[in-house]
What we know:
By secondary structure, the chain is an alpha+beta fold. It has 40 helices and 21 strands.
Amino acid sequence: MTTAWTAEQIAALAPDAASLTAARKLRGKWSGSGAHGDALWGLCAGSGSRPYQTVIDTSGPAYKCSCPSRKFPCKHALSLLLSWAEGNVPATGAPADFAAEWLAGRAAREAKKAVPAARPTGAAPARDGGASADQRRARVAAGLADLDTWLTDQVRTGLAQTDRSALAFETVAARMVDAQAPGVAATLRHLPRAATGADWPQVLLREYARLHLLSAAHARSDELEPALRASVRAHIGYQVPAESVHTEPAVRDRWLVLGQHVTSDEALYTRRIWLRGHETGRWALLIDHHHGSPSFPPDTPLPGFQVDAELHFYPSAAPLRALWGARHAAPEPFTTIPRLPVARNSSAATDPGAAIDAESGRGGVRDEAESASATGSAHAMVPRSRTAATDGGARAVPGDRPGNIAAALLEYAAAIGADPFLRSWPVLLAEVVPVRDESGWYVVESDGAAVPIAPGDGEPWKLLGLSGGHPVTVVGEWSAGGLIPVAALHIGIVTDVAVAERSSAGVSAGRGDSAMTELVSAALVGTARRQAGGGALPAPVAALSARLTGEPAALLLETIALQDCFARGAVTAGAVKQPDPAQDDDRLLLPRGAGAHLAELLGENSPFLDEWFAAAATHDFRAPDELCSLLLDRAKSLSAHRESLLALAGARGRWLAAQHPGWRSLVRAPVDDESVWSHGRPAERRLWLAQLRARDRHAALAALAGSWGTESGPGKAELLLVLADGLGLGDEAMLETALDDRRAEVRRTAADLLGRLPDSTFAGRMAERAGAWLSFGPRLRQPVLTTTGPGVLDEAARRDGVGDSYGYTAYRAEGAPDLAAEWLHRVVAGTPLRHWERVLGPPEQAVRVAMSQGMRGPMFAGWSDATLAQRDSAWAKALFGAFAAQEAGESDSEKLRELFALQPLDDQIRHLRRLDSSWLAEIESLLRAVPHPWPAPMAEHVLRLLLERAQLSADRPGAPSLVPGSYRTLFRASSAHFPVTGADMVSGIAQRCGDPYWEQAFDQLAHDLIQRKTMLEELQ
Length: 1020
C-alpha cells in the first residue's frame, strides 16, 4: 500500500485556502472509507439524502467526486486525504464498487493514451502537415530575414542613436508574431526591461547576436542534424505536438521532483517543474501553460516526492523538456538526492570537444570555430553535428566530483556545446553555503570555491535564512548571469527558495565581459563609422573572428556570438570566504503545519494573529529556518507583533537580520549582556530594562536611577514607561525626580504614572488642589469653581503637570480655549477616587451630583481618567451608566468602551444581553472590550440578534439596512473572538436564516471558526 502523505503535502494540493479549511470541517463525516493499493475512497455526508462518493488515485494523483464543485481537488477529496494522513482510512482487500468502476475506466483511458498512433517503420513523426508546414516555414524565413536586416541596421547605425523604446521593440516583435515566430517575439518584448542597467549595450549585443545566429541556423536548417534542427525550431517557437513527443524513446527512472516555479506573462501563467533521475542523474523539465489563472493539471507529484515513471523528451540537441509517459508506482517521498556522476542529457557528451577543457579554458565552440575558419561564413558557426546518437545517454566527464560546482559548470558547458542557443541549464550543488558580501551573492563550497547568484528582482534571503551559514543542497539553473536558485534540500525537506518571477523568454542581464569592450564601443558608434577591433578577445575567438567574412555589422554580431558562447562555456569557480554560521537554537521547533499557517496569516495580516501568538507564547517555539526571512520582513512593518516575531525567529533571525541593511535595527542583544544598558540601541535598552524589571524590580529601578542624568529627553520618557508594569510606591522617588525634568513629555509621563498610585504624595497634592478649587453647598447642590487667578498657576501645580500644553484644548468658553476647565480636568484625573467618595458619597451618588454644564465636562472626563488609571470597577460601572444615559453622540465611545472593559465579566454579559437587534452598532462597539474569546452566552446572543436581522431580510428583500454587508465588521469581530467550538452552531443557523446572502455570511463565519480551531490544534 502507498505510504500516507503528510498534512503539508496535502495542503499544497489545495486549490485555495478556503477549500482546505472546508476539508478540515468534514472530519467525522466519513463512512465506508477504505484504501487499496494506490486507491482511496469514501462516502461523505452532505446536505442531501445521499452521501458524496469520493475516489482518489494517489498515483496521479487524480480525483473523482459526485459533488457539484468545480475545484480540483474538491474539499471532499482533500478531507479524505487528510483522514488518510491521520490513519483513519483502513486498508481493505478490494475497492468499493463505485471506486472500482471509476478506477477501471481511468486505467483504460491511461492505457489508450500510452499507445501511440501507428506509423510506418522508419518514418519520421509529423510536425506540420504537408503544404501548411512549408507555408509556415516560408513565413518564418521571411520574417527572420527581415529581423536580420533590422539587427544589422541597428549595429551599422550605432546603438547609441537607435530607438530602444518598448514601442520600437514591440513593432519588430509584432512582425515576428505575423511570421509565426513567437519565441523570437517573446525575446524582443523582454529586451527593453532587461537592458536597463549600465551594461545595456552588452545585453543588447548578446541578444542581437543570438537572434542573428538563430536566423542563420533556420536558413540552413536542412543541413543540420535532426536534433539540432529541433532545437533551433523550438527556440524560434515551432510547436511540437504531444502525440509526436510520445513517440520518442521512453526513459524510465525514479524521477525526483526537485523544484517547481510559476511565472506569469500578462495573462499567461507558466509552470516549470524540475526532475532528476535517481539512477541516471538525468535532468528533465516539465512545462505547462494556462491562460487567465495558474490552474494546472495535478499530474505531477509535489517537490519532495519521487515516482517510478517513464518520460518522453522533446527532440533537441540537449534534451531537457519532457512529457510524462507510463507510471509504474505511486509517488513516494524522498529525503536525500544521490550525488551521481555528471550526466549529459545530450549525447554531445560522447564528443570530447563538447566539454570545456579545464586547462586551456576552451569550450564547446571549438569545433564550430574550426568549421567557421574553413568557410568564413556565419552559417558555419552553427554546429553541424553535435549529436552522434539520439538516445540521450548520460556520461561522466573525467575529473569532476559529483554534485560540486566544477561538475555543474562542466555539465552546463556540454549543454552549451550541444545547443549554443540555450539560456540556462539545471544544476545540483550539494553541500554549499549561500553567502552575501559587499560584492554580491554567492554559493560557496567547503574549500572556498564559489559561483555568483544571478542578480534579479529580489535577493535570496529565504535561502540564506534556511542555510544559516551551514551547508545545504541547492537546486537551480545556471545562466549567463549566474545561479538562479529554485529549491533547497535541508534536513530532508525540499523548500522553495525562488525569489522572483522570471520571464518565460529567459532574457537576463548576464555578467559583464571585458573581452567585448572594443566590440561594444564600435557597436555604440556604429560599424559605418568605426571598425570593430578584437584585441581583447581570447586567442581562439580572435583567430576565428579574423577569418570571418561579410558585412561589418554582421561580422560584429558573429564575433559577439562566438565570444558569448565561449565565455558562457568557460566559466570557472572563484573564491569567497564563508562567514561564521548562526548559533544553534535549542528551543522546541514550531510544527511545520503551524509554520505554514503562520506564513498565510502574516501574508494577509490576519486578525487571528493575536490569538496565534498568545497560544504559541506558552511553548516558546523557534521558527523553521525557512520562515526567518518572512518573520523579519513582517517584523519591520508589524510593530504590534514585532517582539513576538523576533522571539520566534530566535538566534537564526538575529544572524540573518545582522546581514540585511533594512533589518539590522531589529537585532536584539542577548538579555544577559550587561553591556546593553551602557552601549545598546534604544530598543535594546528598553527591552533589557523590562526584562530586568521582570526579574528584579529594585535592580531595574537602580539601573534607571543611575543613568538618569545622562539619558536623552525622548529616551527618558520611553524608559519611564517600563515602570508601568508592576508600578508601586517603590517607584515614587524616581517618578518625582522625573517631574523636575526640562522636557514636557517626560513630566507628563511621570505625572500619568504617579496618577495610578492613589497613595502617592503626588495624589495627595492633587487632592489638596481639588479641595481648594471646588466648594459645595451644605447639601451638595452646586459646586463652585475657584482658582488662584485667571490663567495663573503656582509653581507646584506647574511641576505636577497641571499647566502643561498638549497642543490643543478640548474645552471652550465664549469661543476661546477654556484653560481653567482644562486644569480642572487634570487635577480631577490625578486625585484619588476615595477623595470624592469622602466628599460626594459612593460612585453612584457622586455621578448624580448637580453641577453646571461648564463643569460637567471636565469633572466627568477627569473622573474617567482617574478610574482608568486606578482600575476601579465600581466607579467604572457608575460612570458607564451615566454616559450611557446621555443622548447619542454626547459621550466618547472610546472612553465608554474602556470603562465597560473595567467592569466584571458577568456585568458586561448582563448589560449586553439586555440589548436587542436594534442596538447592534452599540453592541459591536462594546464587544471590543469583552475578553477574548467571548463567553458562550454572549456569542449565542450575538448570533440570535444576527439571525433576527437575517429573517427580517428574508421578509423584506432589498432593504438596505438588512443586507449582511451592513454588519460585516460585526461578522469579522465574531470570526476573531467567537469560541472556536461554536462552528456547528453557526452552521445550523446558516441553514435556518432563509436568505442566501446571509447564509453565505454565516458559512464564512463557520469557516473562520474552523480555521481558528485548526490553528490552535496545530500548536499543541
